[in-house]
Design a protein that fits this description.
alpha+beta; two-stranded antiparallel sheet
Length: 287
C-alpha cells in the first residue's frame, strides 16, 4: 500500500474553477487540477505531470428509472414466467428491499473495459449489473477535491458525492467504496496503462423470497427492471426428471421386448418418444 501524507494539499476554489481529477502514475495519489491545464505537479509526491500522463478519474452514479413499487411488479411478473415452476407466483412470498447503489471501478484501456467491485458483494447477482446498459450521470468532483482516495472521510470517492444537481450529498442508498480497495486499484491501473478510471455506483433493489420452504435471493436493476437471479426454484425440477427418465426407459425397453420384428419395434419406440416428449415437457418445465 502506498504511504500517503495526511495533510490536505492546497485546493482550487470550486466556485472559481472547474476541476478534473487524475491519478498520479508515480504514487497513486488523486490530484484535482483546473480543466485545460498543460502541466501540473502531483500534490502528494511532487511529480511533474501532464493530462496525457495521468489516469483520468471520474465519479458517476446510475440514474434510477424504476421505483421500488415497480420493481415489485417486475419481480411478480418474473415469478409467473416460464423460467420458474408453474405455482411460483401463487406460492412464493417475497419482499423488495430499499434502493442500493453498489460501487464498481471501471477501467478503460486498449482492450475491453474491466469492472472491479469496490466493496463486499451483498450477493453474487450484483456482478451481473456490469452487463446492464446504464444511464450514468456525473457526480460532484469538487467534494474532497485534491484528496487521496485512501485517506479521510471527505477523500473517499465512494462515499462523499452525489449525482449532479443533488446538492453534493451522497447518493441515496449508496454503498461506500472501500478506501483501501480503491487506492490500491487506482495505483495499479495508473501503472498498467489504463486511460480512464470511473467509480460507478450501479443501482438495484434486493429481493428475498421463499418457495416451498426454501429461501432465495435476487436483484432488480434500476435501469430496465430486469430480474437477476443465479439460483432459482426452476433448478428443483431435476427432482422429477430422475423418476420420469427411469419410467420412460423401462417403457421403451418393454416395447423392444414385446413387439416382434426390428422395424416395427423401432417405429413404435420412436412414436412413443415423440408422444412422451410432447406430453411431459410442459410438466417437467413448470414443476
Amino acid at each position: 500500500m502506498v504511504q500517503i501524507p495526511l495533510q490536505q494539499p492546497a485546493q482550487v476554489a470550486p466556485s472559481l474553477t472547474a476541476l478534473e481529477q487524475f491519478v498520479c502514475p508515480q504514487c497513486g495519489g488523486l490530484v484535482s487540477v483546473p480543466r485545460r491545464v498543460d502541466r501540473f505537479s502531483c500534490s502528494w509526491c511532487g511529480s511533474l505531470l501532464d493530462p496525457g500522463s495521468g489516469l483520468r478519474f471520474y465519479r458517476r452514479a446510475e440514474q434510477v428509472r424504476i421505483t421500488r413499487e415497480q420493481a415489485a411488479e417486475r419481480f411478480r411478473a418474473w415469478l409467473a414466467s416460464p423460467e420458474l415452476p408453474r405455482h411460483a407466483e401463487s406460492e412464493a412470498a417475497f419482499s423488495v428491499g430499499e434502493l442500493r447503489l453498489f460501487p464498481f471501478l471501471r477501467l478503460k484501456g486498449r482492450g475491453a473495459d474491466r469492472f472491479l467491485p469496490m466493496a463486499e458483494l451483498p450477493t453474487a447477482d450484483v456482478l451481473d449489473l456490469t452487463a446492464v446498459p446504464a444511464a450514468l450521470e456525473e457526480t460532484d468532483a469538487d467534494e474532497g477535491a485534491g484528496a487521496n482516495p485512501g485517506e479521510g472521510a471527505g477523500a473517499d470517492p465512494g462515499g462523499g458525492e452525489a449525482p449532479a444537481g443533488n446538492g453534493g450529498g451522497p447518493p441515496r442508498g449508496a454503498i461506500e467504496a472501500s478506501p483501501d480497495l480503491l487506492a490500491k486499484a487506482l495505483h495499479e491501473a495508473a501503472g498498467q496503462g489504463s486511460s480512464e478510471a470511473i467509480l460507478e455506483h450501479r443501482g438495484f433493489y434486493p429481493v428475498s423470497y421463499t418457495y416451498r420452504d426454501d429461501t432465495f435471493t435476487a436483484i432488480v436493476d434500476v435501469s430496465g427492471g430486469r430480474v437477476w437471479a443465479g439460483r432459482r426454484p426452476a433448478l428443483l425440477r431435476s427432482q422429477r426428471e430422475t423418476p420420469v427418465s427411469l419410467g420412460v426407459a423401462a417403457l421403451l425397453m418393454l416395447e423392444a421386448l414385446l413387439i416382434p420384428g426390428l422395424w416395427p419395434a423401432a417405429i413404435a419406440i420412436l412414436l412413443t418418444v415423440v408422444v412422451l416428449f410432447v406430453a411431459l415437457r410442459p410438466w417437467l418445465r413448470h414443476g
